[in-house]
Amino acid sequence: MYTDILIPTDGSDNVEPAIQYGLELARRYDATVHALHVVDSSPIERKLELTALETDLETLPDTWYEAGDAATKQIETRAAEHGLDAVTEVRRGIPAREIRSYITDTGIDLVCMGTRGHTGLDRVLLGSVTTRLVRTVDIPVLSVKAKQALSEPGMRGGFETILVPTDGSKPAREAVTHALDLARTYDATLHALYVVDRGAYASRPGWTWDELQQVLEQNGETVLEDVQSRATADGVSVAAEITHGVPHQAIGDYCDQHGIDLVVMGTHGRSSLSRRIIGSVTERVLRNSDEPVLTIRGV
């Protein structure tokens, strides 16, 4: 499913978990690793850094590029240690824009991003950049927080439990496709979750809560049966559950209760009776999740 995996880097320790996940996925899928560093050309950002660092304007650009080259070459070396092909590049520009351009230029089909960069010389604002990419690119983005550092150096062993929250919408079904492929690749258990959101009641005047809840639960059963059927056909172990509550909180609680180590989500829900507003829910999960989150944007 993944043949070219992009790992943007600023060379900070905060990006290390994203690098490890990216290398692990590349190893499992025999994908080419792309390491990219963007020298941020934002005038305001550079002015602030120059003022704070009192650095010579004539020598600073070389320093930026040298730091970026070193960061990408480090990923290339680590990829080679695991028998993986790697490509490195340093660009200058607005980080999110340059990353999107690189994705288009090279046919990237998965991005592994840290959600927080560092504030030093070659800062690329990975936190805000990640948010922009999740909202705008049409390929999956794996967001990994700095605090999700692995307990052991080197490759991660893989995923054992994968959660896919779903509302049956097209983006959610596409997320299920990715989750199933990952579960099959890692021999992991897939958990499918449908959350009955009481907040939907406010948008349906004329309905009693009992009436709406019954419809939502019936829709949830249909949606989860479809996931279970697809999982069975793919030979994937699956657990399915309907729960009630505030969607992003219910997803977080489920992760804690079941030891989930990867969440796969669509970034837009549907606007029918059973709407789950997956787009806004996904962003809340990204902000609050203790697990890496793979987002699949609906188009």
From TrEMBL:
<protein>
    <submittedName>
        <fullName>Universal stress protein</fullName>
    </submittedName>
</protein>
<dbReference type="InterPro" id="IPR006015">
    <property type="entry name" value="Universal_stress_UspA"/>
</dbReference>
<feature type="domain" description="UspA">
    <location>
        <begin position="159"/>
        <end position="297"/>
    </location>
</feature>
<dbReference type="InterPro" id="IPR014729">
    <property type="entry name" value="Rossmann-like_a/b/a_fold"/>
</dbReference>
<feature type="domain" description="UspA">
    <location>
        <begin position="1"/>
        <end position="145"/>
    </location>
</feature>
<dbReference type="InterPro" id="IPR006016">
    <property type="entry name" value="UspA"/>
</dbReference>
<dbReference type="Pfam" id="PF00582">
    <property type="entry name" value="Usp"/>
</dbReference>
<comment type="similarity">
    <text>Belongs to the universal stress protein A family.</text>
</comment>
